[in-house]
Amino acid sequence: MKTLAYGFPKLGEKREFKSLLEDFWKGKIKEENLIDGMNSLKEWIASLYKSHTDLFPSGDVSYYDFMLDMAITVGAIPKRFGQYMGLETYFQMARGAQALEMTKYFNTNYHYLVPELEGKDFKLFKNIPLEEYSFLKSKGYDPLPRLIAPFTFLKLSKVLKRSEHSELPLYELSKIESQKDMEDYLNAIFPVYEELLKSLSQAGARAVLMEDPALCLDMEEWEWDLVHETYSCLSKYADLYVITYYDSVSNYKRFVDLPVKALGLDLVSNGENLENIRKYGFPEDKALIAGIINGRNVWRASLKEKLSLIEELSNLSKDLIISNSCPLFHLPVSVEPEDSLPEGLKERLSFAKEKLRELKTLKLAFEGEEGALKEVEESARLSKEGFGAREEVRRRIASLRTEDFQREVPYAERIKLQQEILNLPLLPTTTIGSFPQTEEVRKARTAYNSGKISEEEYKEFIRKQIEHVIRVQEEIGLDVLVHGEFERTDMVEFFAQRLEGIATTKHGWVLSYGSRVYRPPIIYGDVYRPRPMTVEEIGYAQSLTNKPVKGMLTGPVTILNWSYYREDIPKHEIAYQIALALLEEVKDLESAGIKVIQIDEPAFREGAPLKRRDWPSYFDWAVKAFRLCSKAKPQTQIHTHMCYSEFNEVIEYIYQMDFDVISIEASRSKGEIISAFESFKGWDRQIGIGVYDIHSPAVPTKAQIRAVLERAMKVLPVELLWVNPDCGLKTRRWEEVVPSLKNMVETAKELREELVKA
Hints:
Layout: E1 2-4, H1 16-25, H2 31-52, H3 66-73, H4 87-95, E2 102-104, E3 111-113, E4 116-117, H5 128-138, E5 146-148, H6 150-156, E6 158-162, E7 171-174, H7 179-202, E8 208-211, H8 221-234, E9 240-243, H9 252-256, E10 262-266, H10 272-280, E11 287-293, H11 303-316, E12 320-324, H12 352-366, H13 370-384, H14 391-398, H15 411-422, H16 439-449, H17 455-476, H18 493-496, E13 500-503, E14 510-513, E15 516-518, E16 522-528, H19 535-543, E17 550-554, H20 556-561, E18 564-565, H21 571-591, E19 596-600, H22 615-629, E20 637-642, H23 651-655, E21 661-665, H24 676-679, E22 686-690, H25 702-713, E23 721-724, H26 734-757
Parallel strand pairs: 1-12, 4-6, 5-8, 8-9, 9-10, 10-11, 11-12, 16-18, 17-19, 19-20, 20-21, 21-22, 22-23
Antiparallel strand pairs: 2-3, 6-7, 13-16, 14-15
Helix pairs in contact: 1-2, 7-8, 11-12, 11-13, 12-13, 16-17, 21-22, 25-26
């Protein structure tokens, strides 16, 4: 039996990756320094792999995103970026004024850059996989080159075409869905992969790791036919190890029939793959890559159970390779430096480094090594011990009734009551919540956390920031204001630090996209709110202005999906626990005079299983969780926010959440979400259109903003439309934010005047 690991977090133990990128973008280091730093990370990861596993890949350290790398490899570079100028163009595609769309990678919180296909003229433009393999080979390693498989690459890409809705150079994006189109694109891209595999084989690669997680999506028979044909051809040029993850494969029999050397199955996300192996067996002529170590959650594996599974699988497969269930980049690097976790928690945790150790221990235990067998017994003890239970919380969940998930007054009546109170104009303007987290803000937070300034000094600093942002918003002319969220590090971590049953880490950083990192909390016990969490800051902001200030909360589904959650109770119970805690906060905000409350749910879509057959059960509790926490007075206007995900597919479930206003990203995706409302009949909720991309430093022009709004006005009644950026402004600089918001507000006012005159 062998071990394989892949997808190790490239961030580094001290966030070296983030520092390198941001220093390069700021001009603090030169390109050669960036390359040297990235190479050091590659060697560091390879050395970790080599000391723990038999097989491991090259290509884990992308300079921004692995899908962007693949797009450049196959020459899928939109014409608007001009001649490719190395890293300059690379980062323009990633984060420039006309950057590629960004969305969630399957049902995870990693954001990938969506390749845009302007034609079918693919070519081996820049052989990045060969470069990555050759570098590690030159350093004495023998990795497996890692590629995104052609089917998955095309399923995650979108076709780019000129918009017919505007005279401006706007574009529309669409997925490849028809059989003919997919066949044409596969035929067009196949020669590139053929050339790729030839080059890797000639360079000495013993096998190539093909990541094909799209095989876990709902698939038609014709898609399987195309996949089978593709691998039949490609397998002539290299030994292929095809791995899937995040769910069971859509058709087990078609999958195991693929003409390749090894097949990888996720045996953690659900039980279906394992059931099929037991029921139908596994081919004798292929290696089974068994994904038995959870690559998405931080709990230490029950090694005794895993060892028993390995023994079973070794009888079902002649050539067994054990592996992580999915890429490890969803995890922090190591639990070792964490020194302030609740007692008894650390020993139950396993981050990326520890997952490698688990694989090594299982192999040694399978071979009978005494020390490894002792570790296996120790893990069995921990898995049996209860942790973090609170009976009062359990009783509240058990006593929930149908009416607890419903607002007392229907939307049509609520919105009238709210407008009487708020008296908002046509096309009301607002922001999503956060404002720039400047160096000054970060330094003050660090000083407070390290004890250099007192709690009162820190609170006074925050109050000054709040007052400043209120005055800025008033001067710009926004209609509904926010307090800026200067006291918050992260939209989930902030609430996790104030809720019981959830732990936060000091060093548990994970990449979300580019250099953007966050620290997912760990839900280890029953969740409850010991005291108000946001009332002080938001109440203070409201006291400074006559305009409405939004209360800003993160929703229960997002807190759950962006945390590592416990596995001993159903997910819906955890969501309801969080929802009840948030409902208490909503009631306290109402008592403090807050008339508008935004409960953000950007992770609402991403938590859905990959297969549509599993959607109803997920969305049933996800919708209920939101409705439970948003059971406010009818006069209180409930907003929510969603961004950077494929929401078009779930618009009916979104509608069921029964909010009053939703703000949604529409700029970076070229206004794609707006098309969802063309087919949805009876949409009557107010909606804030994200009119510019906050992930770019570019200041949007009034013409660009107007084009997005005019597109929306062709689909939705103007009475329903709000105007806002597509996401929070935390990562931007004030010198970008102020002119952008001024252009946004002025455009809204101009349109408003035109509409009134008309």
